[in-house]
Write a structure and sequence with these properties.
Elements (H helix, E strand, L loop, with lengths): L1 H32 L8 E5 L5 H9 L4 E4 L2 H8 L8 E4 L17 E5 L2 H14 L3 E7 L15 H9 L4 E8 L7 H21 L4 E7 L6 H6 L4 E4 L1 H4 L8
Parallel strand pairs: 1-2, 1-8, 2-3, 3-4, 4-5, 5-6, 6-7
Helix pairs in contact: 1-2
The protein binds pyridoxal-5'-phosphate.
């Protein structure tokens, strides 16, 4: 049984290597088509459900950003992750009472969407003597059941966080709705890029608009063409997610 598993895992690692080469090539093509270079776009591996051995294999292959989206799963993997060679980001929906598990432990929280959450991140960062870098998640498709701040509330949220100690906004993140038509998808990505550029131009304290994190397995090239400089790729890299039986 153990043997079979490890063989399966080895096969998975080989697949990751091939997938990674393919994704890097596609990122480079899209970056070049938008007047940039492949290395201008960060590939963040979305690692939910992926065993830590496979994640570490990806890190050894050169993946230097990984993102987890559940606090509990991050906790389970954290000590075994080869973190010296990569940044660990939190990319999922975050409850205020879980902030304590992340501050001082992750390199970035990509999913800040409320004053309440930001306040708690700031409070614990001060208490622990660290600075926490965050992205603001925008609910670009105005979907009712999705996290993210609504576009019209973005500036206010940014203004509030600017005044808080030990938290710095480094950019924006979005997960647009699933779109049948590329045109509609492109509109969402482009709108995000507009907000990103607008805020960057205004240059306020505590705000360094560095990252525009958007695009996943199904649409990362489209996102890059619209201006994304960080894409979060899971299933294209690691294969279809196998959710453990609970
Ligand atoms: C899972 C996840 C991704 C990656 O999704 P894929 O479609 O598997 O590439 C990206 N961003 C977030 C926030 C995720 O939870």
């Amino acid at each position: 049984m153990t043997e079979k598993l490890s063989e399966e895992r080895m096969a998975r690692c080989r697949a990751v290597e091939e997938n990674l080469a393919d994704i890097r090539a596609r990122i480079a093509r899209a970056a070049e088509a938008s007047g940039r270079k492949g290395e201008d776009v960060i590939l963040l591996a979305a690692t939910k459900t992926v065993p830590v051995e496979v994640v570490n294999h990806a890190i050894r292959l050169g993946v230097d950003f990984i993102g987890e989206n559940r606090v509990q799963e991050l906790e389970e993997k954290y000590d075994r992750l080869e973190r010296d060679k990569c940044q660990v980001h939190f990319i999922g929906h975050l409850q205020t009472n879980k902030v304590k598990n992340l501050v001082g432990r992750v390199d970035m929280i990509q999913s800040v969407d409320s004053v309440r959450l930001a306040k708690e991140i700031s409070r614990l960062s001060v208490q622990r003597g660290v600075n926490t870098r965050v992205l603001l998640e925008v609910n670009i498709g105005r979907e009712e059941n999705k996290s993210g701040v609504l576009p019209e509330a973005l500036e206010d949220l940014l203004g509030e966080i600017t005044g808080m100690p030990a938290i710095s906004v480094c950019g924006l993140m979005a997960i647009p709705p699933i779109c049948e038509e590329t045109e509609r998808l492109r509109n969402y990505f482009s709108l995000m890029a507009e907000y990103f550029v607008d805020i960057k131009r205004k240059k306020s304290d505590n705000v360094a608009m560095e990252y525009l994190s958007m695009g996943m397995s199904g649409d990362f090239e489209e996102a890059i063409l619209c201006g994304a400089n960080m894409v979060r790729v899971g299933s294209s890299l690691f294969g279809r997610r196998q959710y453990p039986a609970r």
